[in-house]
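batch job 7 of whatever, protein = Pyridoxine 5'-phosphate synthase
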Amino acid sequence: MNMIKLGVNVDHVATLRQARMTYEPDPVTAAGLADLGGADIITIHLREDRRHIQDRDLDLLRQTVFTKLNLEMATSQEIVDIAIRLKPEQITLVPEKRQEITTEGGLSVTSQKEVLADIIRKFKDNDIYVSLFIDPDRDQIMASGEVGAQAVELHTGNYANAKSEKQSVEMLEVLKEGVKIAQDAGLMVNAGHGLTYKNTGPIVECMDVEELHIGHSIVSRAIFVGIKRAVKEMKDIIYKHYLIKQNLRVPKV
């Protein structure tokens, strides 16, 4: 198994900027520093209400991200048109509610299969890779394959918010089963939401996924140590637990 790739979500840098409606801190600069820290992917969410990431940010990131740009978005026609124009390497379709602080759960694929199939077809016709952010639920996973998605990002929020070790272990088992179902269905599997420096290790050891998408925890750490170091620290955690999973010796620091 290859080591899991790290997608760094810089939305929260833009959230801080928009709190004062000014020009700093700049998520584009943050993305560049994240790249220097070892980020494999830059993830952003262009919301319909533009509460954090702005069109200007997306335009500049499309020009300056030379690894992989993953655009999270809802199914709004306006955002679909923007995505097709800019052609990020990957689209991740997510649910979106105006009143939520952050994305609260996975996309309901089963309830909007026709709409999603049409949008996914447009993206694939434009050579854009499509992932769906969903809960680790068999019906949602199978429906994701049926509508043409190439990947799913399993929502790790229930694991991240577990109140006890027992609950955490149970949620990990649910996620592991979701990975197996998705892989058997021919889907690439990513994961994300609520992951931190404390709870990412078990995900790496237990789940055979391609990418982890982490934002808030890295940006929070970056306030104290800077973006570059914060990303490197998360990459080090992923590497350490990858070695543990492979029964390889973890080098002493």
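notes: The longest strand covers residues 129-134.
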